Amino acid sequence: MTSLLVLNGPNLNMLGIRQPEVYGRVTLPEIEAMCQDHCRALNVDCVVFQSNYEGALIDQIHAARGIHDGIVLNAGAYTHTSVAIMDAVASAEVPTIELHLSNVHAREAFRHVSFLSKVAVGTICGFGAHGYVLAIDAMVAHLAND
Ligand code: DQA
User: Fold this and answer.
1) CATH number of the domain to which 122 belongs
2) Mean pLDDT per 10-residue run, the chain (146 residues)?
């Protein structure tokens, strides 16, 4: 069975409370349940994980090698700063989709930079919580064409 890891980085545990005008009112547990439901309907296994710690995210990415077929990664602010997470994605060799709830390109200039884009299959941003469903569909299609 295809297996996906949905990985969320710093501050995403605050979804629903945090700047709802930017990120919406859907909470992380609701998003994770949405991912599980959508994957179940596609007959895909889905593991979810969130951490505010860069190293914990890197450990999950490394551990995905040989276990998960794809990663949906919202690395939060680490997207714009972390060479280490970029390197982890490159080392794990697990196809990874970069995801953002907000349209980072319509926001501050520092959010236009993404280290992850250099190693990701592609990026989905600006569709709020629904972006996770789009990313799962995109990953399943990508894996089917592999
Ligand atoms: C985010 C966008 C990032 O710039 C920000 O630091 C986040 C969330 C998003 O989902 O829109 O924490 O990744």
Assistant:
1) 3.40.50.9100
2) 97 96 96 98 98 98 98 98 98 98 97 98 98 98 91
